[in-house]
């Protein structure tokens, strides 16, 4: 049967889906997901497992409407045109991708499709990258003016996409690969229904009061849902009262996500390279000492309880509280003198919500080489951060139980002295400035 193809990528839901509306306007809709080896190969087991669970949830949702998800494996520029030819596809509909790889991939697919159009409708963002610019048409490099312009620009209401009103088409499908063995990693429930339930359960939480407290476990936990598109930020924004200081703060966190997508869109090299290249000449450890420090940090064996708690939470849940992400990142770069790319890679390998734009640019923000207007002097003290944001130590006790019960094992002595390393970091920065680099 001739149909339009809806190619799912980072929009693994059926509600609030503009590309689905556009596809349905053309007639029957074939739901397609392409397992792309260029993305599947580098992904860590946590992200692979969560993606597979999300795809199974999407497939179950589609089957309620008579058809399942069509899965094919291979390079999209080969697979998508082949599916279009096989099914008589009149058009391929997608949510626009603004990442470096995704944008280039879509251009290759558009060329390979020939006369079959690749139709981009909507994106994973409330405001697509490239739309919020300065008055003279340049991209913002600092968050605060971007945030003001982003609010002034505004966003559309959620799209009224009703999967029950769609004529769904089918085609033969590959099997999904087996799920990696995560052993004891505890991932959140996947899929659109779980995302909406998380959002509804969390709405009304006094965000300003709890957002920096890892011991309370009271943040929204929506980052994996936003990463995989099981909920759209527009859906969340529609439920936010901008006059409430708590929800206004939460909206600002959504704006950070959109800002970093904007930065990556305009400066794609910043995914791997320094946004502020003048800081790339700071001294960092190498060789065996790099391996030793990185291993202690990654396993949660640095001798700094709040750091170790965060790193162990990452291994156990594929997630880490945002405040703790900043603490452990600062410690790696500015106490252990390990270059930020090493930490960014570790996070991307283990985070269920690993998002290239947010991950890489948050690491650069902490390292002092990103978009921050006053970058390098911010050095988190892991001891005072722990006392302030985990005041009775319950977060640390959960993840570092040997501190309270030595029979569980010996806790290591601090790997470095924070005061000494802070002074060394500031001295290196001042030396770099004096030499005009």
Question: Explain this structure to me?
Answer:
It is a single chain. The protein has 437 residues and is mainly alpha-helical. It starts with a strand and ends with a helix. Helix 5 links the parallel strand 4 and strand 5. Helix 11 crosses helix 16 and helix 15 packs antiparallel against helix 16. It is built from 19 helices and 5 strands. The model has no long low-confidence stretch (mean pLDDT 95). Strands 3-2-1-4-5 form a 5-stranded parallel sheet, with helices on both faces. The chain is globular and about 70 Å long. The chain has 3 domains: 120 residues, 3-Layer(aba) Sandwich (Rossmann fold), CATH 3.40.50.620; 109 residues, Serine Threonine Protein Phosphatase 5, Tetratricopeptide repeat; 156 residues, DNA Cyclobutane Dipyrimidine Photolyase, subunit A, domain 3, CATH 1.10.579.
């Amino acid at each position: 049967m001739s149909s339009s193809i809806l190619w799912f990528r980072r929009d693994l839901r059926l509600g609030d889906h503009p590309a689905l509306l556009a596809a349905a306007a053309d007639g029957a809709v074939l739901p397609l997901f392409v397992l792309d080896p260029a993305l599947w190969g580098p992904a860590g087991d946590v992200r692979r497992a969560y993606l597979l669970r999300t795809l199974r949830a999407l497939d179950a949702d589609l089957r309620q409407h008579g058809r399942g998800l069509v899965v094919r494996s291979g390079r999209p520029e080969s697979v998508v045109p082949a599916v279009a030819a096989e099914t008589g596809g009149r058009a391929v509909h997608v949510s626009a991708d603004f990442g470096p790889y995704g944008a280039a991939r879509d251009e290759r697919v558009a060329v390979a499709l020939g006369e079959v159009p690749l139709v981009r409708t909507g994106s994973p963002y409330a405001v697509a990258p490239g739309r919020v610019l300065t008055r003279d048409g340049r991209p913002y490099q600092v968050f605060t003016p971007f945030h003001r312009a982003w609010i002034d620009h505004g966003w559309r209401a959620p799209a009224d996409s009703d999967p029950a009103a769609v004529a769904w088409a089918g085609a033969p499908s590959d099997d999904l690969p087996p799920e990696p063995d995560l052993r004891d990693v505890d991932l959140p429930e996947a899929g659109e229904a779980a995302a909406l339930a998380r959002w509804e359960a969390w709405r009304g939480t006094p965000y300003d009061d709890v957002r920096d407290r890892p011991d309370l476990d009271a943040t929204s936990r929506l980052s994996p849902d936003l990463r995989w598109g099981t909920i759209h930020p527009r859906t969340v924004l529609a439920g936010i009262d901008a006059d409430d200081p708590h929800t206004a703060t939460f909206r600002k966190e959504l704006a950070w996500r959109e800002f970093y997508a904007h930065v990556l869109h305009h400066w794609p090299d910043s995914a791997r390279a320094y946004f502020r290249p003048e800081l790339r000449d700071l001294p960092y450890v190498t060789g065996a000492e790099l391996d030793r420090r990185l291993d202690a940090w990654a396993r949660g064996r640095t001798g700094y309880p709040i750091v170790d708690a965060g790193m162990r939470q990452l291994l156990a849940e594929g997630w880490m509280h945002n405040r703790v992400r900043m603490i452990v990142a600062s410690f790696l770069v500015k106490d252990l003198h390990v270059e930020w790319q090493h930490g960014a890679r570790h996070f991307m390998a283990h985070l269920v919500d690993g998002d290239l734009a947010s991950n890489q640019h948050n690491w650069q923000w902490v390292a002092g080489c990103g978009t921050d207007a006053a970058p390098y002097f911010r050095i988190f003290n892991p001891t005072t951060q722990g006392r302030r944001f985990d005041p009775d130590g319950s977060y640390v006790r959960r993840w570092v139980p040997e501190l309270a019960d030595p029979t569980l094992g010996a806790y290591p002595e601090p790997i470095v002295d924070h005061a000494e390393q802070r002074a060394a970091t500031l001295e290196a920065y001042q030396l770099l400035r004096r030499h005009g680099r």
